């Protein structure tokens, strides 16, 4: 079954495929793996690809998509591509040039969705993670509302069909929604979301504002050593997910992905392994009962795998709020 067959309508009228393929690639892996991964993902049926400037794989992502267009497997308009504005480019005058830089790397004319990656501006310069002599992150002072206005201009210029945010808490979202003269609402908020951190309050808030919640880390993340506490429990080893997998004759991964779709969440799934990609697009082929959805709700334990510790000292660190 093709993931392109299930879409969610965004508040600006564009459609987003409900299942997306993530392209974060740990530093220790060769980028050729991303190139191969995106090609295999498109062959498997993924039509929504999620990337970001800071992942440093936009060249490979673009090359894979263009390759599949040249092969005649897809047309550009069949693919929904997201990229993200990194924290060191939040000054309004840097937003469009940053998107243009991403497009140059991708060798594409537009992205379908451009997101503010985190609600915190960092010091512009050569470093993606600027730090002082004590190893502390260095900030910039930029009003998020000014950044948002620059995002709106990117949409008007046709460089991004839709614009949204990532890792915003509900207060930060509300600030944008309440901006005087707001032209376009964020279409989505992309956040960590899985049965151990089900984001039910943030999801309710987003739904009430017609903002789609996009889930990353939906399978418990890749558990990259740089970012994830290795002693944290492995989501896909959860016995309840395991029992449900048996009951539905599916894998724990599919149970975790299906859970999100049935809550109206757009879900990302990452893998470099063809078998797993082919498995993940089967998420549209079965349904969890309401009772079992509640059982999965019961697994919530506010466990955040990706705490973005490099931002934790900032007063606007998004994850200090309850939601
Ligand atoms: P994820 O999708 O939660 O999980 C990936 C892990 O699940 C991989 O290690 C993979 O194993 C495993 N997996 C995938 N399919 C499976 C299956 N069918 N059965 C068993 N295991 C399976 O990982 P993520 O990369 O953290 O998140 C997804 C994407 O979200 C990222 O790639 C990125 O695009 C985005 N993201 C965004 C942000 C943000 O700040 N906005 C942050 C993090 C991630 P194998 O390695 O063995 O294939």
Structure description:
- This protein has 323 residues and is an alpha/beta fold.
- The strands form two sheets. An eight-stranded parallel beta barrel has the order 3-4-5-6-7-8-9-10, surrounded by four helices. It has a two-stranded antiparallel ribbon with strand order 1-2.
- Strand 3, helix 1 (32-44) and strand 4 form a beta-alpha-beta unit.
- The protein has helices at 32-44, 58-70, 92-106, 144-156, 170-177, 200-208, 239-248, 252-262, 274-280, 290-297, and strands at 7-9, 15-17, 19-22, 48-50, 80-85, 111-116, 160-166, 188-192, 212-216, 266-269.
- It is built from ten helices and ten strands.
- NADP nicotinamide-adenine-dinucleotide phosphate is lined by residues 22-24, 50, 117, 166-167, 190, 216-222, 236, 251, 253, 268-273, 276, 279-280, 306.
């Amino acid at each position: 079954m093709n993931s392109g067959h299930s879409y969610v309508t965004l508040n600006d009228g564009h459609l987003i495929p409900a299942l997306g393929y993530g392209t974060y690639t740990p530093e220790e892996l060769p980028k050729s793996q991303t190139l191969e991964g995106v090609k295999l993902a498109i062959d498997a049926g993924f039509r929504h690809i999620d990337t970001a400037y800071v992942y440093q794989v936009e060249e490979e992502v673009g090359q894979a998509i263009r390759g599949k267009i040249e092969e005649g497997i897809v047309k550009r308009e069949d693919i929904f591509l997201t990229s993200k504005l990194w924290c060191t480019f939040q000054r309004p005058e840097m937003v469009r040039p940053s998107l243009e830089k991403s497009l140059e790397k991708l060798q594409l004319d537009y992205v379908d969705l451009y997101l503010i990656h985190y609600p915190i501006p960092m010091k512009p310069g050569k470093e993606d993670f600027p730090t002082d002599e004590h190893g502390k992150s260095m900030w910039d002072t930029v009003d998020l509302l000014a950044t948002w206005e620059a995002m709106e201009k990117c949409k008007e210029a046709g460089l991004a069909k839709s614009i949204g945010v990532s890792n915003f808490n509900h207060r930060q979202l509300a600030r944008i929604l309440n901006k005087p003269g707001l032209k376009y609402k964020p279409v989505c908020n992309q956040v960590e979301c899985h049965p151990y951190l089900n984001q039910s309050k943030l999801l309710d808030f987003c739904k009430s504002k017609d903002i789609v919640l996009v889930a990353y880390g939906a399978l418990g993340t890749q558990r990259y050593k740089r970012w994830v506490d290795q002693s944290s429990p492995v989501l896909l080893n959860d016995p309840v997910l395991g029992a449900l997998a048996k009951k539905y004759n599916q894998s724990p991964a599919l149970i975790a992905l299906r859970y999100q779709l049935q809550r109206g969440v757009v879900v990302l799934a990452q893998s470099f392994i063809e078998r797993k990609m082919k498995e993940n697009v089967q998420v549209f082929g079965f349904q969890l009962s309401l009772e079992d959805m509640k059982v999965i709700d019961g697994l919530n334990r506010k466990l955040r795998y990706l705490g973005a510790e490099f931002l934790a000292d900032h007063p606007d660190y998004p994850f200090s709020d309850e939601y």
